[in-house]
Structure formats: C-alpha cells, structure tokens
Amino acid sequence: MGWSFGVTSWVKDKPIHSGDVLVFNYDPTAHDVVEVDEDAYNTCMMPIGGGTLHTSGNDRVVVPAGKSFFVCSMPGHCANGMKIAVTA
C-alpha cells in the first residue's frame, strides 16, 4: 500500500535489523518523509530545524541500530496516522 495513513502497525511482527533498507513509496506532490526524534513522533510537531527530509516519492533509508521515527510533515498527516517507528 505504500506510505499512507494508518501505517503505524506495519512493523508489527516484522523483524527490523540495523542495515535494513526501508523504502517509502508515495506521491511526492502530496506527502514527504521526515526522520524525527521520538518527541516529534509522539506529538506530531516538527522540531525546530526539522529532521532529515526525504521528498523523492521513492525514498530508501538505511535503518540504524536503535529506534527510528518517520512522519509525514504535511499538515494533519502525522496526526492522522502517517507515521512509523521502528526498532533495529
């Protein structure tokens, strides 16, 4: 289904390892992917200075060890479930 609303449970029962590559597919005229900290993920408020922004519509992100958080920064998208957290 790609990067869309309601994807927060996508990682359930999926083993994620550091070095794995997450691929985010989406319409870049309507969405983006921002790597943020846990607070921004939980509150859906983008940190000052933002996070790492991806806008290609076919983003490939290498997962580091530990927790990683991704949100769509378009107004209302994160709050409506367009976000994902992974632990490697």
* Largest beta-sheet characterization: 4 strands, antiparallel
Number of contiguous helices: 1
Q: Write the H/E string, N to C.
A: EEHEEEE
- What spatial order of strands do you see in the largest sheet? 3-2-5-6
Compute the gyration radius: what is it?
A: 12 Å
Strand composition percent: 25-35%
Overall 3D form: globular
Total number of beta strands: 6
Poorly predicted residue ranges: none
Overall mean pLDDT: 90
What is the helix content? under 10%
Head-to-tail CA distance between termini: 22 Å
Structural class: mainly beta
Protein name: Phytocyanin domain-containing protein
Pfam families: Cu_bind_like
Keywords: Copper, Metal-binding
Domain Phytocyanin: 1-88
Describe this structure in words.
It comes from Urochloa decumbens. Residues 1-88 form the Phytocyanin domain. It holds the Pfam family Cu_bind_like. This is Phytocyanin domain-containing protein. GO terms for molecular function: metal ion binding. There is one protein chain. The chain has one helix at residues 38-43, and strands at 21-25, 33-36, 52-54, 58-62, 67-71, 83-87. The chain is mainly beta. The protein is built from one helix and six strands. Helices cover 7% and strands 31% of the residues. The strands form two sheets. Strands 3-2-5-6 form a four-stranded antiparallel beta sheet. A two-stranded antiparallel ribbon has the order 1-4.
